[in-house]
Amino acid sequence: MISKTPPQFRATAELERAYRAMLLPAVFAVGLFAIIPLAGMFALSFSDYHLIRGAKWEFDFDNFIRLFSDRRLANSVYVMSVLSFFGVLSQVLMGTAIAVGLSKIVGKWRAGRVLFLLPYAVPHVAVALIWLSLFTPTLSPINAFFDLFGVTVPSFLTTQNGALFAIIMADTWTNFPFTMLIMMAALQGISPDLDEAAALDGATRVKAFFYITLPLLVPALLMVTLFRFIDSLKHFPMIFVMTKGGPGRSSQATNYYAYIQTFQNSNVAYGAAIAVSLFIVAALISFYVARLNQRITST
Amino acid sequence: MIDNSTPFRVKKALGVSMMSLLLFFAALPTLWVLILSFREQSAMFEPIWESPLALTLDNVINLTRSDFPHALMNSFITAGCATALAMIVGVPAGFALAKSRLSGKFYASWMLLMLRMAPPVGFVIPLFLLYVSGGLIDTYFGLIAAYMTLTLPLIVWSMWNSFAQVPDELIEAAIMDGASLPKAFLLVALPAARPGAVAAAILGFLIVWNDFFYALIITRSSTATAPVAVMNFISYDSVDWGSIAVASIALTLPILPLMMIANRYIVQSLSGAVKG
Which residues of B touch A119 (CB under 8 A)? Predict the structure, then answer.
């Protein structure tokens, strides 16, 4: 029999089959390791499962209705927003400032940028412990230093704003190098001719920065902010180690609150409902990032 | 205001002092943890300038005698295995996604990103229940399987990016010459994307090494990884700051060289996407 399919096309179809075969193990693995737990999370969120009391396995929307009247959840969203907003803001500002500063440094001092990278290598639990020690008044060298002048530094971890401030400091310390790295690369991509042209036209350096350099940095800034923002929604080790969500409930971010409901209060079903809500936020943001990525790579 | 009339050296001094301040912020905690780790237990709560020479190796010795070295070993095993397994499955998948004409690639990229961004608590709740009923709590198998949810999306995503930068012509030429697709992949595409593959493996290893949450929920004493084991130095009535400081350093040192190799790639992958 003679096939009517042109040989060229037959080869492509064969090739596509081979590609699919290469993809298959990963599809299987993602299904097994990721999709099954996620399906479990969705199923649990509609259930009435309690770690100690067990479950009658009645599925309804009760957990999601409860979300709207839960003041602890509202508080956790507030905490999460404060941590995300100020954390990401300070990381982006600091990272960009250092990147711009380093771009002006020439010669042997350039090697100094390794010092700025170091905090990024420290695992988050260690970061949290180091900053816990710096915020422990009996131990901290900062407190000891100010004591020399008779100034008593307040105990940050015992007030709400202080505790949030402490977490933001630790978060900023370990994550500003990420922003810095990306902004350094973005700055290198900008032609120095532009600055020279601006100088010839009589622009001051400050003006040249704000009107020429900064607009060119916007795509990189957007990307970095998005990535940091998404990560900031997952705050856990720093809260767990530094404040345990306290004082009271004043530093319980939503991710941490879901953990408390599930593993301390045994409300597995309700914890899963909170996790589902967070997941939907992550899904929406990642849709936007995927679109952004598609637009960038297709041009 | 700073404008053209401000003398150059004033501006320079301003810039230098600003950078010094930022450097101080970046370096202080690192210096502090170094000091703490060599400080005598009895001098721990004295100001550093009152007993600057109260140095000792006791903290380091104490740490080696605790169960922390075992936990470090656990970290190596789980991070290594979860990365290796995800590489075996994920690298060919990244290649297929980058070079095939499959439809629905946008949805694949969305899903990969979503898995990376999803709150870990969502994965951990069902895994925990599953593991309790299946006897997988505190087993290497259970922990490594759980970490695949972190490493696999990351590795597929970054290999997709790396293979996208390998020219199509290279693979087409190999296939024209009669190579099968797996052969073209192994002998042509993979060597061309090797730096990306090394970086993907490093990033996968780091994400497991740094994890605290998964290990906190699904390990007990025998497979506890280092980030969880370090919490043992905090008890209700006292905190062993010396051991914590040494443990923090022990947690960082092994991954420092990996980090220095990977940071170049972090920039390339993200800024590559930014510049197009």
Answer: 26, 29-30
The tens digit of pLDDT for each residue in A266-277 reads 999 999 999 999
Residue A94 belongs to domain spanning: 72-298
Encoded amino acid at A77, one letter: V
Residues in B closer than 8 angstroms to A97, CB to CB, are 18, 22
State percent of chain B over pLDDT 90.
41
What domains lie within chain B, and their CATH numbers?
A: 8-59 (no CATH), 60-275 (1.10.3720.10)
Q: Residue B79: what are its φ and ψ, rounded to 5°?
A: -65, -40
* Helix (H/G/I), strand (E/B), else coil: B50: coil
Q: Please state the domain count of chain A.
A: 1
Using CA atoms, how far apart are residues A34 and B56, in angstroms rounded to an integer?
47
Q: What are A128-140's pLDDT values in tens digits?
A: 999 999 998 888 8
Contacts across the A-B interface (CB distance below 8 Å): 291
> Can you list the alpha helix ranges (DSSP code H) found in chain A?
7-30, 36-45, 62-69, 71-103, 113-121, 124-134, 141-148, 160-188, 192-200, 205-208, 214-232, 237-238, 254-259, 268-298
